Every structure is written in C-alpha cells, then in structure tokens.
TrEMBL record:
Keywords: Signal. Residues 38-49 have a biased composition (Low complexity). This is Sensor domain-containing protein. It comes from Glutamicibacter halophytocola. Residues 1-25 form the signal peptide. It comes from the Bacteria. PROSITE patterns: PROKAR_LIPOPROTEIN. Residues 26-49 are annotated as: Disordered.
Length: 247
C-alpha cells in the first residue's frame, strides 16, 4: 500500500464514506481491506428493480448474518467505489524499506482482494454499534485466470506466516512494525492475523476461500485486538453464509 494513507480513523479505503486524509502513514492492506460503513445501506429504486448478481446475493447474505452477530450497520460498496477497489494500487512500497527484504513482495501482495479479478464482484461492509470494529464480505467470480490469482495470493500469505512473523517498514518520515500470525482457521484456504504499531495502530483478520466459481474474502479491522476465537467464528460464519448462496 502507498505510504500515504487515504484513510481516516473510521477505517475507510481509497473511497471512504467518511472524510479522508492524504497525509496519514499507510501500510499494505489498509486500502483493500478497510472501508467505513457508517450507516445502514438501503437499495435505490433502480437496484430494487433489477435482479441481483450471484456475488451480490452472496455478500448480502453474509451481511445479514453479520447483523445477527452484532454488526447491524452495513453499506454496499458499488459504482465508482467498487471500480476503484478493483484497480490494483501501484507504487505501494515506494520509498519504503522492508526488513527483512524478502518480505517486501509478499507484504506488498496484501493489497490484493477478489474484486481485482475484474469479473462479476460485490462487497458489503458492516460495523458494530460503536463502530470500533469494521468487517467486510467480498465475493468475485473467478473467471478464466482467477483460480491461479487466488492461489498465488494464498501462497504469499503462507510465506508471510512462515517467514515474516515480524517485519519493519521504514519510510522517509515514519517507521512501524508489522506482526503476522496464523489465526488457525481450518475451514478456509487462507487465514492471516496481523497487527501494526505506531501512530495508526490497528489489528486485522483476513480469511479467503475459493469455491468452484467464486472467491470469497471476509475481513475485520479494529484498533483493539482481534486475537480472539470469537472473531474467527464470526468471520467464518459470515463466510459460510455467503458461500451457501454460490453455485
């Protein structure tokens, strides 16, 4: 991710629903895995009239279950916002030195998410009442080369867990340490828990699972620790609800 953050405290991505600052330090994955969901979304008349895509049905099902699990505020990411997320960020580690150096490429790949496959895709974000935790469910059709892209990303995640348990990012005007671990979620293809220190400390949990035709990602971000089995259960339950709607 670019060194400069386009995200405000409310966990927004490149296209936040809340006000954003372009002067905050950023690290990989903030842009693709975080976005504020500040209010309960309601479909526009045009959305109600058209038939939802399979990906949209799946993310809606995940968000509905998230509501039952304590995350009642949701927002569908669509239109130009979704298009922006589908564009892979560039120069994500420009002017940043990653130590150990071999961790640079896999950490940079944390910017990836299923929407970037460029196929049928949908994403819904959700928060709890206090908005101290933001979650998201993202679904995209694999298409011709999608399975290989997902496998490549998952391989990088395994590299991070095995070889980059602690990595330092040194920029021109900031430094921070990333700590990675395996949250031990056996029912998914890829699972990563990580924390960052520094002025904009945060914790993230990211799960990815591939079906025959789709890729599903469920993630949570928070200022406090997410290293609790209950968050794993919430994330896997949301994922299972989404996958249940897929062919």
């Amino acid at each position: 991710m670019p060194k400069k953050m386009t995200v405000a405290l409310a966990l927004c991505a490149a296209l936040a629903l809340s006000g954003c600052s372009s002067t905050q330090a950023q690290m990989p994955q903030d842009q693709t895995h975080k976005k504020a969901a500040e209010a309960t979304a309601s479909p526009s008349p045009s959305e109600s009239a058209r038939q939802l895509t399979t990906a949209e049905v799946a993310t809606t099902a995940g968000a509905v279950l998230a509501t039952e699990l304590g995350f009642p505020n949701s927002a569908k990411i669509q239109g130009k916002d979704l298009e922006a997320l589908a564009t892979p960020p560039t120069d994500t580690l420009k002017d940043i030195v990653v130590l150990p150096a071999q961790c640079s490429a896999p950490i940079n790949d944390l910017n990836w998410s299923p929407v970037q496959l460029g196929t049928e895709a949908a994403r819904t974000d959700f928060t709890n009442a206090n908005q101290s935790i933001t979650g998201s469910v993202e679904v995209a059709k694999l298409g011709a080369n999608g399975a290989a892209a997902v496998d490549s990303h998952n391989k990088n995640v395994r590299t991070i867990v095995e070889q980059c348990k602690s990595a330092k990012l040194n920029g021109m005007d900031y430094t921070e340490t990333l700590k990675f671990s395996d949250p031990k979620v056996d029912s998914v293809d890829s699972a990563l828990y990580y924390s960052r220190d520094g002025q904009y400390a945060q914790n993230s949990l990211v799960l990815i699972k591939k079906t025959k035709q789709y890729a599903v990602m469920v993630s949570f971000v928070a200022g406090s620790s997410l290293a609790d089995e209950k968050f794993n259960k919430v994330a896997t339950s949301v994922m299972d609800a989404a996958i249940a709607q897929l062919p």
